[in-house]
Design brief:
This protein is α/β, with parallel strands linked by helices. The protein folds into two domains: 132 residues, 3-Layer(aba) Sandwich (Rossmann fold), CATH 3.40.50; 64 residues, Arc Repressor Mutant, subunit A. Helix content is 52%, strand content 13%. It has a five-stranded parallel β-sheet, with helices on both faces. The N and C termini lie far apart (38 Å). One of its GO terms (molecular function) is DNA binding. It comes from Cellulophaga fucicola.
Length: 209
């Protein structure tokens, strides 16, 4: 029996996934958490085969939580999932150490398929995403631009797009304000803009909000 831990801030999602997996042979949910502090507290006593981690997780965001997971619990495989842009966050998540990424808009069958693949030591992304990433369509310039961004740059852009000031971004990511200013300069250069208004417009084009 393979074990799963669900880290999601919405109780209805926790219950729904737990009930669905209870009907599938081979998987058992051994715990849930609604915040990062609760997650790491519970992982002191539980070691699941796969952690399902929500991207927009409270206290620290999903990517930062993922990095901490890989440092503190390197043997736990992580499936990131989110209602946000799969094109942007799948690659960002995998770069940060996740074994797979799943959109919350995906069919329920994908959850089981993803867990099976990841628990067997393989990577998982949907066929649709793989096909989209294989082609650079002329109308998808913003999507091509995001691939130039590092995982940390995407984190900074996401927090800036949500209205946070440099000081708040620095505090949230454990960096200093000067470093955040450096990241902003890099973002503007990579996204071909020269002011914050246009930078935030690019964030909107990338579905980062």
């Amino acid at each position: 029996m393979k074990t799963v831990f669900i880290a999601d801030s919405h109780p209805v999602v926790q219950v729904g996934i737990t009930q669905m997996l209870s009907m599938e042979t081979g998987f058992k949910v051994i715990g849930t958490a609604k915040s990062s502090s609760e997650l790491f507290e519970k992982l002191e006593n539980e070691t699941p085969d796969v952690l399902m981690l929500e991207m927009d997780f409270p206290e620290i965001n999903g990517i930062a939580c993922l990095r901490k997971m890989k440092k503190n619990h390197p043997d736990v495989k992580v499936l990131m999932y989110s209602g946000q842009s799969e094109d942007v966050y799948a690659i960002s998540s995998i770069r940060a150490g996740a074994q797979g990424y799943l959109s919350k808009n995906a069919d329920l069958d994908y959850i089981v398929a993803a867990l099976e693949k990841i628990s067997d030591g393989k990577m998982f992304i949907t066929n649709e995403l793989a096909q989209r990433l294989a082609f650079d369509e002329g109308t998808q310039k913003p999507r091509r631009l995001f691939r130039k961004l590092s995982t940390r740059e995407i984190e900074v852009l996401k927090m800036l797009a949500s209205g946070k000031r440099n000081k708040d971004v620095a505090l949230g990511l454990g960096l200093n304000e000067k470093t955040i200013s450096t990241y902003k300069a890099r973002l503007m250069k990579k996204l071909n803009v020269d002011n914050m208004v246009d930078l935030l417009q690019q964030a909107k084009a990338l579905d980062i909000f």
